[in-house]
């Protein structure tokens, strides 16, 4: 978002300059940069799963966090990272396990709920870390 705003600002400055032959344009992100940004967004979303207050939100809080991670994973997939299909499948599988753990939150046993969700979050974190390492060879 900041890049876009800076690009707009630069464009506005160029339009007001005395050199009418130059028009500033915003350079689109390279496919590699899009993948790297999507990877970083996914990692940030997964880190949010480790927030202790997540379970305070109960089933709805965990489900919202899972939906966010799912959306970030979809964005990464749409960025064209087919070279990492195995790692992406592992993240999808672990995320399905987290979704299942979130759905099974009953509230009758906070300890059991927390253990199931915590184990699933660990699996998501591990699979995202493996994916991040694989993609990391392509990202700065």
Can you describe what's shown?
The chain is 71% helix and 0% strand. 23% of the residues are buried. The protein has 140 residues and is an all-alpha fold. It has one domain: Four Helix Bundle (Hemerythrin (Met), subunit A) (Up-down Bundle).
Chain-wise SSE layout:
Elements lengths: L1 H15 L14 H18 L9 H21 L6 H19 L6 H27 L4
Helix pairs in contact: 2-3, 2-5, 3-4, 4-5
Number of helices: 5
User: Which class in CATH terms?
Assistant: Mainly Alpha
Assign a percent range to the helix content. Answer: over 70%
Tally of structural domains: 1
Ranges with pLDDT <50 over ≥5 residues?
1-24
Helix/strand/pairing category: mainly alpha
Instruction: Please name the CATH architecture.
Output: Up-down Bundle
Task: Give, in order, the helices and strands.
Answer: HHHHH
Sheet-strand content, in percent, reads under 5%
Record field, number of beta strands = 0
Major β-sheet profile: none
> Oligomerization state of this entry?
single chain
Question: What is the C-alpha radius of gyration, as a whole number of Å?
Answer: 20 Å
Can I get a quick summary?
The protein has helices at residues 2-16, 31-48, 58-78, 85-103, 110-136. The protein has 140 residues and is mainly alpha-helical.
What would the keywords be for this entry?
single chain; disordered N terminus; mainly alpha
């Amino acid at each position: 978002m900041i890049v876009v705003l800076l690009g707009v600002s630069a464009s506005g400055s160029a339009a007001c300059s005395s050199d009418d032959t130059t028009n500033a344009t915003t350079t689109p992100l390279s496919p590699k940069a899009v993948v790297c940004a999507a990877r970083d967004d996914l990692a940030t979303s997964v880190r949010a799963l480790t927030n202790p207050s997540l379970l305070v939100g109960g089933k709805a809080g965990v489900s919202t966090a899972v939906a966010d991670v799912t959306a970030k994973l979809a964005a990464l997939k749409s960025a064209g990272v087919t070279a990492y299909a195995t790692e992406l499948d592992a993240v999808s599988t672990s995320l399905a396990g987290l979704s299942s753990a979130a759905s099974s939150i009953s509230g009758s046993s906070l300890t059991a709920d927390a253990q199931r969700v915590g184990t699933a979050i660990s699996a998501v974190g591990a699979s995202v870390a493996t994916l991040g390492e694989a993609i990391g060879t392509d990202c700065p």
